[in-house]
Amino acid sequence: MQLLDDLATHWQIEDPEEQRLISNVSWAQYETLLAERGDSLAYRVNYLDGILEIVAPSRRHESRKTRIGTLLEIYFLEAEIEYFPTGSTTFRQAQQQVGLEPDESYCIGSEKEIPDLAIEVIITSGGMNRLERFRRLGISEVWFWQGDRFSIYHLREQVPESFLQTAGYELVQHSELLPELDVEFLNECVRNPSPLAAAKAFRQSVRQQMGLNEGDRPS
């Protein structure tokens, strides 16, 4: 679509984190947009109940999401957790009138149609109801990186009425999918201005937690 191409070009000039909301978009129009966009990474598209959200990620956004993914994959490797990265795959269900493209996502333990964990970096607040999108797809855990730290939400299928304000998710202090993960140290490593130093420090911390010496596994 020419509108989307023009927006992407404009947004890239100063590397802002920009988003646009468009109302009254049919599911057919949403799917047509996805088909026309193809594999382009210039912008991401989310959909909920006829509202289309178009996001042009900034360099800061992409840097954070890539660093989070790198650190998590170090954790999976060192902790010997089977994982299947699904990245920013478009997940959508017409009956639920929802479509989303997380910054990072993972199936844990086994490969599934819908990931267990989704991660979003939030630079610009506002937009559509993020947690509601994830709930409709049945994603168990959602991490938001905002304000230089993670907020972790876990879906409560048994008592959704207790968490109506958060679309059935409970804000938790530690990941229930990865209960041994030191989230506070992960926060520190994502904030570290040196990606290399952060990765090395995080790997060493995980190895110490697992009772490993530096030579126990290949680097």
Spell the H/E element sequence: HEHEEHEEEEEHEEEHH
How far apart are the termini? 45 Å
CATH class placement of the domain at 59-209: Alpha Beta
Q: For the report, how would you describe the main beta sheet?
A: 6 strands, mixed
| Tally of helical runs | 6
Portion of residues in beta strands equals: 15-25%
* Unreliable runs: 7-13
The CATH architecture category of the domain at 59-209 equals Alpha-Beta Complex
In helices, the fraction of residues equals 25-40%
Please specify the SSE layout and strand pairing.
Layout: H1 2-11, E1 18-22, H2 27-37, E2 44-48, E3 51-56, H3 59-78, E4 83-85, E5 91-93, E6 98-100, E7 104-108, E8 117-121, H4 130-137, E9 141-146, E10 149-155, E11 169-172, H5 183-191, H6 195-209
Parallel strand pairs: 8-9
Antiparallel strand pairs: 1-3, 2-3, 2-6, 4-7, 5-6, 7-8, 9-10, 10-11
Helix pairs in contact: 3-6, 5-6
What does this structure look like?
The protein has six helices and eleven strands. β2 and β3 (51-56) form a beta hairpin. The N and C termini lie far apart (45 Å). The strands form two sheets. The chain has a six-stranded mixed sheet. Strands 1-3-2-6-5 form a five-stranded antiparallel sheet, with helices on both faces. The radius of gyration is 18 Å and the shape is globular. The chain has a domain at 59-209: tt1808, chain A (Alpha-Beta Complex). It has 219 residues and is of the alpha+beta class. Keywords: Endonuclease, Hydrolase, Nuclease. GO terms for molecular function: endonuclease activity. This is Uma2 family endonuclease. Residues 27-181 form the Putative restriction endonuclease domain.
